[in-house]
Design a protein that fits this description.
alpha/beta; D-amino Acid Aminotransferase, Chain A, domain 1; Glucose Oxidase, domain 1; 4 domains; eight-stranded parallel β-barrel; 28 helices; binds phosphoenolpyruvate; binds magnesium ion
Amino acid sequence: MWGGVGAVFASWNGKRAIEYRRIEKIPHEWGTAVNVQAMVFGNMGDDCCTGVAFTRNPGNGENHFYGEYLVNAQGEDVVAGIRTPAPVNQYSKNAQSEQFVSLEKLMPAQYKELFTIQRRLEKHYKDMQDIEFTIEKGKLYMLQCRIGKRNGVAAVRMATEMHKEKLIDAKTAIMRVGPNQLVELLLPMLDPKAELLAPVIAKGLPAGPGGAKGRVVFSSADAVAWAAKGEKVILVREETSPEDVDGMHKAQAILTTKGGMTSHAALVARGWGKCCIVGCSDIEIHSEAKNFHSNNGLVIKEGDWISLNGTKGTVYEGSMALVDIDIDKNQSYKDLMKLVDKTKQIGVRANAETPRDATTAVKFGAEGIGLFRTEHMFYGEGSEAPLFQLRKMIVSKTEKERREALNGLFKYVKKDVKDTLSVMNGHPVTIRLLDPPLHEFVPHDKEKLKQLSKELGISMGMLNRRVLALHENNPMLGHRGVRLGISYPEITEMQVRAIFEAAAELNKAGKKAFPEIMVPVTVISHELRHQKEIVDRVYKEVCEKLGVKKIPYLYGTMIETPRAALRADFMANVADFFSFGTNDLTQMSFGFSRDDIGGFLPKYLDLKILPDDPFQTIDQEGIGQLIKAGTERGRVTKPNLKVGICGEHGGDPESVKFCHRIGMNYVSCSPFRVPIARLAAAQAALETPRKKK
Ligand code: PEP
Ligand code: MG
């Protein structure tokens, strides 16, 4: 007996238990308990059996008693999977158990009793129960019951149906679904059954959720070429850059060996709702040989199939089945979201920069766009023309040349802005002025440079000099954000003119447009004043040109440097709104490069030096203080200052809850995370309700 008790306690520190607690975020110090009780035996003959059942189907949430049993067996035989169990009833039959006799047929009286008891247990605990039972010599014994685990689809269905059945109230229904469980309803997944059987060949950071399968390619160009031939491909790279965007877009999924949760690959993929795993250091790419080696010695060649689970960060060999879910057809999801929207007290917007993304965002319930990254229209797909104009501007030597190139760009920017404003029809659209350092837009390999010099009609020598001049040792801390707008005011001018003209034309056509002009990477209010002068001047010019009296808009800034957060009271003198850019704020405050954190983060997490990836969930103790102070200080100057967040954290449930608690007006995240943020916002409102004003 003591041996048994000791074994249970010791199991708490087993490898699997520790791993499970880490995933489920169960504190290690909780410990476990031991129950000692009399045994009953399901293995005393053919009038005995044992089984495991659920009061509702944990795989899809259907309100049907669902379970398995084995005649003449003990519980361990059922769970260990040594024998194929039989279904408790007709409903529980599957392909493997089709031919077996159900418990309902074999022992009808006991089944009836079991059925009545499971109903009673669910009614008592007001949740789906996972129950274990034994029938010993014809007598039914209940061994245990507990809240049953369920997947996301089932969680949403059970919560809303139990609410309709009046078993639980709306509050409980909202709290029952884990925000991240919604991901399963929104994206295709690897078939869970197939996944269970396949060995994991490598593990990385789960940057873009969902599942995907495809044939391995190692360059963006190959991804594009193979996809054009109708192949499904997975782009495997050490890391990605804006030059890879075309290939990334054409690929089913992206797998990188470096980079963190806000690295280029992660951010872009998440925005598209694309499956992506980054920082997967378990594999090593051999570009020359066109293959990669996994830690366990497996070699995957170009063209081989692999499957990714971007929700868990796991990589599998071969082509695994995918399961798809159509959200519009899911009544339970719609019911849940109705309850959620009635409850939440913080707005949810999306980060989007094309009319298509904006449409997706609206479909997922976004109430506006919190971040329109202007530069994204210059990347990849179909942007040959604007990218060329932008490059022309970058290599310009004089203001005159630059202005000419900017004129060429103007119509593209205006069209993109206008179409997006139009889709959002009156909902706010926060348009950020150009942010990345200019070198990001020029090619870096020799062949492409040669081609560009031809297209631009300038010598290679001159182009090289210009590219060299743009080189920076720390580009993330370099000539980017508002610094570009101050060095080259004409860049700001072109963008602002495009925004005002787009908005004014829509307003004139009877549509509503509400742009919010946002200045990135500011550190001091003088920068905002400098840019505001340009905005004011262009505003007047556009009003005159188009004959309108007013173009509604707001002028604000990102708070993404520690200094801006600390001096928020001064920034608020010149800003109508703040949007916390927590990607850069985290990078600059920790001093961790958002693109290279993959190199050491796993070790930090393993050793529990950091509790979480700070680029994924807000470090509330440190970065959170900057955000809180920034919000409070800003509102000392302007009590009604609109405050939001547009870093990747805006779609992380714990971070959304934090933003709710400190009184932000909205969070903004990639379109596919909008439902997750809405649910987290509703849960935050139930946990810590704000006082109604
Ligand atoms: C940020 O820094 O949080 C942000 C949203 O801007 P970006 O990710 O484009 O740098
Ligand atoms: Mg930023």
